[in-house]
Amino acid sequence: MPQQKLYAGAKLRETRTRLGLTQKDFAQKLGVSLPYLNQMENNKRPVSTTVVLGLAQEFGFDVTELTSADSERLVSDMREAMADPIFADDPPPLADLRLTASNAPGLARAFLALHNAYRQTHERLASLDEALGREDARPQASPWDEVRDFFHYCDNYIDAVDRAAEHFAAQSQDIRQTAVRALRDEGITVHELDRTELRNFNRETRTLTLSTRASLGTRNFQLLLQLALLKQGKLIDATLDLARFHSAEARTIAKIGLANYFAGAALMPYTAFLAAARETRHDLEMLARRFGASIEQVAHRLSTLQRPGAKGVPFFFVRVDQAGTITKRHSATRLQFARFGGACPLWNVHSAFETPGRFLRQLAETPDGVRYISIARDVSKAGGQFGAPTRRFAIALGCEVTHAGDIVYADGLDVSERQSFEPIGISCRICERTNCHQRSVPPLERRLTINPDNRGVLPYEVG
Question: CA 258: distance to chain centroid?
Fold first, then answer.
């Protein structure tokens, strides 16, 4: 099979700018000519082996960062944005989107931010006529979307926070006692009571109360989350300053998100968790028992193992509710989720609600021909007392089938046969499949044929 050429001009420019070097100095250190470097930075030539070695030897650069994961993520997000009916008359071809993502990623992100602002304003005006006269009807992304995109484009890995959590966890093998002791040093007492609230911190009495209705893993997580808010404030604020959020609400949501990140990373320290994941072949139940975490926490943590120089298997992770709406999403793989709306109905994550407590396995192939193994399970959360509502979610975790040997859930599956893989998509508007029986809307980039005298699975034929 011919080797795929690597075009990473934007990443080269970004690296050179970060190092504060001119093109001439950068070319000299990499052992190439100035014109050749210029051509690589403008994606007119692929990155050479000499440059890859030079980046690793001269600057200690993790060359896996040169891969096109960011570019593919931007292409996927732009394709979905272009599925908006406002662009339906003359959508740009896929080749143009790929060129923009690889050559001008900053422009691509600006376009996505602009479209997101438009979408938010459009939805707001559609639901609230009086919004035209309100001062807070600003054309900008919602705080939730802004924070979601922040983690999305960080590959869901925050190095400084992750390392700080690992350092904290190294103080003792009993992470719970370490956290309680650290809070006690701050004059804070920890109580566990039968309450509805999972966690409550009273700043006046310096008392942290955790609910005994929650599992031990959840209580430990909430304990570490509160610890992060109280003891890691400077680190979290410094990270937030770099993010430059547009609103105080987004910054506050992101602060809680980073505290959540610290809690998960302390409960499952990077180095130890990566070693255990490899040892158990990513068995979620074994990892949950070993680290005192929930299945969902373990699955989410597996999707964050992207530390430069010590990366784990690149996973995608998603959580959906019963309506199919995506409530959490991240992908370190080429699979990118719909930014708006639900996941493909052919995906096994939806079937997990029908088989509570069981892992479902699926071999799936996306329209671009990439094959994945996906495992799904429901993660319903009981209210803790009679009559309390149960929050029902399902999660899916998966990776490209090339990693099947590292995944216990692939055992017994025939990954060599094309017939073993079920066709799935991302979003109906950008899905290229013409014969999908679950299609909800026509694909944006295809012509339709409608015959009043003929009706197949769909009321139209896709050309």
Answer: 14
